[in-house]
Write a structure and sequence with these properties.
Blueprint lengths: L5 E5 L3 H18 L6 E5 L3 H4 L16 H8 L5 E5 L11 E6 L7 E5 L13 E3 L3 H10 L4 E3 L5 H9 L5 E5 H6 L8 E2 L14 E6 L3 H7 L5 H16 L8 E8 L2 E9 L6 E9 L3 H15 L2 H8 L1
Parallel strand pairs: 1-2, 1-3, 6-7, 6-8
Antiparallel strand pairs: 3-10, 4-10, 5-8, 5-9, 11-12, 12-13
């Protein structure tokens, strides 16, 4: 693969483009290339096209990745850049994750114009989110709140808040940081109230499994701690068959050669919540995530998964 032909595929949202430009800069630095030698190709996904319905109503995971993966198969691009929380746990045959970039802050941000945090919201306040996980978690700590579907980028959501559509919303801290919009954060939500989505804050580079040149290109960008943490989280999600219709959260941290994992599953209304924690060797993330999921499955009401994924 000649340097001038390195092609990165990404969605066209401001955050996706910020992530793609970060990848391009890291690739250029790692291989001593001019950034102009690395092209960025914008690919519109189903999740981008359908904006008038909740994500859970139009197919769950894969909404923001399928068309980009199709471009990989068609050899129209060499590297796909994804927010890893958007990726399916089982990749299409022939594709693989070549690298995981150093992880940003995985927590959620509370954004409101008049209220300091979740606890400060008045009884019955309307909260907007397109995430079923966040909806279930906020109802778990504040069952009195009313949660409505709320999609759009940061500016769109802020405008909706100003217009009174809702009194608060949530976004990933990682995305706001990458967009230079950390000043829009009213408060960072404790992971005791909102355990993050699996792989939140992580950028994954997907390549064709047989593309040794792309494999060599992205290898220097891989962050081993992020890779191991995300492996545990995605294993947990995979075992529980998580999708946008299943409120599941997972977060792992690495300290030296030890991995600490926390997982959670909730009913859609937030009334039922099951938590699990595990620790083990940092290179055993997949086994830790799977074992944690099995523990949750042994304790949780089976109807939660049946109702949520129906």
């Amino acid at each position: 693969m000649q340097a001038a032909r390195i092609r990165i595929g990404t969605r066209g949202s401001p955050l996706a483009l910020a992530q793609a430009h970060e990848v391009r800069a890291r690739l250029a630095k790692a291989h001593g290339l001019p950034e102009d030698f690395i092209a960025i190709s914008i690919i519109k996904t189903t999740g981008d096209r359908v904006t008038d319905r909740p994500l859970s109503d139009i197919g769950g995971k894969g909404l923001f990745t399928k068309e980009i993966e199709d471009a990989l198969f068609a050899r129209e691009i060499d590297i796909a850049v994804h927010s890893m929380k958007d990726m399916q746990t089982a990749l299409p045959d022939g594709l693989t994750i070549g690298a995981v970039l150093p992880r940003e802050d995985p927590r959620d941000a509370f954004i409101a114009l008049k209220h300091a945090n979740i606890a400060a919201l008045p009884t019955g306040a309307v909260v907007g989110t397109s995430s079923l996980r966040r909806k279930s978690q906020v109802l778990s700590v504040r069952p009195d709140l009313s949660v409505i579907d709320f999609r759009g980028n940061v500016e769109t959501r802020l405008r909706k808040l100003k217009d009174g559509v809702a009194e608060a919303t949530f976004l990933a801290v990682a995305g706001l940081n990458r967009l230079g919009l950390a000043d829009r954060i009213t408060a960072i939500v404790s992971d005791e109230d909102m355990l993050p989505a699996a792989a939140q804050g992580a950028i994954g580079l997907e390549i064709r499994a047989d593309d040794k040149e792309a494999e060599a290109l992205v290898a220097p960008l891989n962050d081993i701690a992020a890779e191991r943490a995300v492996t545990a989280e995605r294993a947990f999600l995979m075992r529980l068959e998580g999708s946008c219709r299943t409120p599941i959260a997972a977060h792992a941290t690495i300290d030296g050669d030890r991995l600490s994992f926390r997982g959670q599953i909730l009913s859609v209304d937030g009334r039922q919540r099951y938590d699990v924690s595990r620790t083990g060797a940092s290179n055993a993330g997949r086994d830790i995530g799977l074992a944690a999921a099995d523990e949750v499955l042994s304790k949780a009401d089976p109807a939660i998964l049946v109702r949520s994924s129906a």
